[in-house]
């Protein structure tokens, strides 16, 4: 029997919540780049009411741990921690890039996925994933922040068809044009909470949870992001 998991993500322009319970998934999702703090909790209330359960009925709370917008990732983990503390729930952090890989499979049936989120500053958050027999994802390229030109220089060709997802492809289309991979465009631009909830089931089954105070984000560009804040070194 699958775990009852609430998932949320605010790491990109997309704001999304999903509740996976009793074989059903309840979803809310909206592109709202400046309204995450206004949208996310009402979405949580809506999916809980639709499913007819409360936070205290859940087994775990999953969240998009990044990479993504520095502010967005902080908002997401802060709200997730608050909910988890209130209901005494363990937490599960899921890579937003892996979630996009799952989304690309869900939407376009790609089993090999190259994910690139526009990270600004002429860089992308990058990762490549291959779907395993059990439905989980193996890592072909570990997540990193990197200029597209470096990817083009170091990526070797193979015989696979790679579905590509994320905002980085359009943002740096010229730079990516020389990438030595066979690519097919997908319809996925952002991570979705329903895919985070799906991946969180694997982590739950393997006992990979943390207490709320131990939940941590992944920025990939920690020093640069913190230096943007006044008084930070």
TrEMBL record:
Entry's Gene Ontology molecular function annotations: tRNA N(6)-L-threonylcarbamoyladenine synthase activity
Residues in Gcp-like domain copies: 30-160
Keywords: Acyltransferase, Transferase
Pfam families: TsaD (PF00814)
Family as reported in the entry's similarity comment: Belongs to the KAE1 / TsaD family. TsaB subfamily.
Protein name: tRNA threonylcarbamoyladenosine biosynthesis protein TsaB
Source lineage: Bacteria, Pseudomonadati, Pseudomonadota, Gammaproteobacteria, Vibrionales
């Amino acid at each position: 029997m699958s775990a009852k998991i609430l998932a949320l993500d605010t790491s990109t322009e997309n704001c999304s919540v999903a509740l996976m319970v009793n074989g059903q998934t309840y979803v809310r999702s909206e592109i709202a780049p400046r309204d995450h703090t206004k949208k996310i909790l009402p979405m949580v209330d809506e999916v809980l009411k639709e499913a007819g359960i409360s936070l205290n009925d859940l087994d775990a709370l999953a969240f998009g741990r990044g990479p993504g917008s520095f502010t967005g990732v902080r908002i997401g983990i802060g709200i997730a921690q608050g909910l988890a503390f209130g209901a005494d729930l363990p937490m599960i952090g899921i890579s937003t890039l892996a979630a996009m890989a799952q989304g690309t499979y869900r939407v376009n049936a790609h089993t090999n996925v190259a994910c690139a989120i526009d990270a600004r500053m002429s860089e992308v958050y990058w990762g490549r994933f291959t779907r395993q027999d059990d439905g989980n994802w193996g890592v072909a390229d570990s997540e990193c922040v990197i200029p597209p030109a470096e990817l083009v220089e170091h990526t070797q060709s193979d015989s696979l068809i790679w579905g590509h997802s994320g905002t980085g492809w359009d943002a740096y289309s010229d730079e990516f044009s020389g990438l030595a991979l066979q690519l097919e465009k997908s319809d996925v631009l952002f991570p979705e909470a329903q895919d985070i909830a799906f991946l969180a089931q694997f982590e739950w089954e393997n006992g990979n949870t943390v207490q709320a105070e131990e939940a941590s984000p992944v920025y990939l560009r920690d020093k640069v992001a913190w230096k943007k804040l006044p008084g930070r070194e």
